[in-house]
Amino acid sequence: MVGSLRSARRADQAPSAVLLNGVSKRYQLRGPLVLRDIECSMQPGTLTHVQGDNGCGKSTLLRILAGVTVPTRGRITGLPARVGYVPERFPPGLRFTVRQYLGHLGRIRALPDRLTAARSGELLDLLGAPQIADTPMWELSKGTSQKVAIAQALVADPAWLILDEAFTGLDRSAQLALMEQVRACRNAGGAVVFTDHGQRARARALAPDSSLVLVAGALQPQETAPLERVMLVVLAGQPESFDVAGHPGVRHIETTSNSILLHVDAEDCDAVLAKALQNGLSVRCVESVG
Fold first, then answer.
1. Per-residue pLDDT of the chain (290 residues; tens, 9 = 90+)
2. What end-to-end distance do the CA atoms of the chain give, in Å?
3. Under 8 Å CB-to-CB from 8, ≥6 apart: which residues?
4. Cα distances (angstroms) measured from residue 132 to each of 97, 120, 128, 135
5. What structural domains and CATH numbers belong to the chain?
6. What tens digit of pLDDT does each residue of 22-52 get?
7. What one-character DSSP code corresponds to residue 71?
8. Taking the CB of residue 87, how many other CB atoms lie within 10 A of it?
9. Which end of the chain is less congested by CB atoms within 10 angstroms, N or C?
10. Which class for 204: exposed (0-12), middle (13-18), buried (19 or more C-beta within 10 A)?
11. How far is CA 154 from each of CA 33, 124, 163, 188, rounded to the nearest angstrom?
12. Exposure string for 205-234, b = 16+ CB within 10 A, e = fewer
C-alpha cells in the first residue's frame, strides 16, 4: 500500500484469522433471515471473492465482516482493530469538505492529524483526484465520491479490507490503482474480502485465493482451483503503440492514457516484455500474482 503509513502498523495489530461461527442475520424481529448459519474463515494474507445474485445477502455479509452490523445469532471473532470498509452506497451530502471528512475519520481512528493529512493526500493523488481536497462532499459526482470512499477505507492502513462493489463508478486509472492497493494489502499480510458483481475478468485478474458463493443467504465455500503461474506486468507508454491483445499468454488487459496492465502466463512473459520494449514502452513492474 502507499508507503508512508506502512510503518505505523504496530505488532499488536497484526491480523489473525477472522472466523464466522453460525452467523445469521434478520433485520426485523419476525422478518426473514437474510443470512443463515454462515460458517467460514478468512486467513491473513488472502483475498476472498464473495459472489452471488442481487439480494442474496452479499452486502449484509460484508457489513458483518466490517464490524458495522451485528449478527442476529452466531458470532464473528478475530476482527483487527483497524478495518477498512467501502460500502456499496457511500452516504451522500455529508457536511464536510473532502479534507475535513478524511481528517475527521483519521481522528476517530486515533491517527495523528499530520499523518492523516499526508496519507489522505497520497491516496487522493493515487486515485487521480488531488484537486478535490477542499471540495464539499455534497458537490462530488458519484465516481468521485467513490474515490473518497476508497481513500477513507485505506487511510488507516487497515489489516482487514472490505470492498463492497468498490470498483463501480471508478475510471480505469483509479481501478488499476485500487487493484494495486488490494495486492499490496494481501502481500503485506492483510486480508481482503471483495464483491465485484458481473466483472468476472477483473475478479480473475485479482487472482483471489478463494471464492464464497451466497445462494438465498446460505454460504457455499468454493476453493479457487490452483492457478497456473501468472505474471503482473505494468508498462508505461501509449497503449495505442502496442497491440498486445492477440499475443500468446495474455489473459487480461487494462489500459489508461499512459499505461498498460497485463496478466500474462509466465512462460510467455519474456516474449511480451521484448515486444513491449521494441514498441517503445518501458517496464514499470513485473511480479508474480499466481
1. 554 444 444 444 556 899 999 999 999 888 899 999 999 999 999 999 999 888 899 999 999 999 999 999 999 999 888 899 999 887 767 889 999 999 999 999 999 999 999 999 999 999 999 999 999 999 999 899 999 999 999 999 998 999 999 998 888 889 889 988 998 999 899 999 999 876 666 777 777 888 899 999 998 756 544 445 778 888 888 877 777 777 888 888 888 878 888 888 888 888 888 888 888 888 888 877 65
2. 19
3. 111, 115, 157
4. 9, 11, 10, 5
5. 3-223 (3.40.50.300), 230-288 (3.30.70.100)
6. 999 999 888 899 999 999 999 999 999 999 8
7. -
8. 18
9. C
10. middle
11. 32, 11, 11, 14
12. bbbbbbbbbbeebbbeeeeeeeeeebbbbb
Contact of 263 with 232, CB cutoff 8 Å: yes
d(CA 84, CA 150): 9
Q: Which distant-in-sequence residues (6+ apart) come within 8 Å of 208 by Cβ?
A: 47, 48, 49, 194, 224
Instruction: Give dist(CA 117, CA 111) in Å, integer.
Output: 10
**Pair 241, 274: CB distance under 8 Å:** no
Strands 218-223, 210-215: pairing is antiparallel
Largest Cα separation within the chain, whole Å, is 66
Q: Which residue in 52, 49, 74 sits closest to 162, CA to CA? A: 49
Asked if 20 and 74 count as a contact pair (C-beta separation under 8 A), the reply is yes
pTM: 0.75
Residue tagged 442481487 (cell numbers):
54
Minimal CA–CA distance to 173: which of 135, 138, 215, 129? Answer: 129
CA–CA dist 149, 197 (Å, integer): 18
User: Which of 21, 135, 1 lies closest to 71, judged by CA?
Assistant: 21
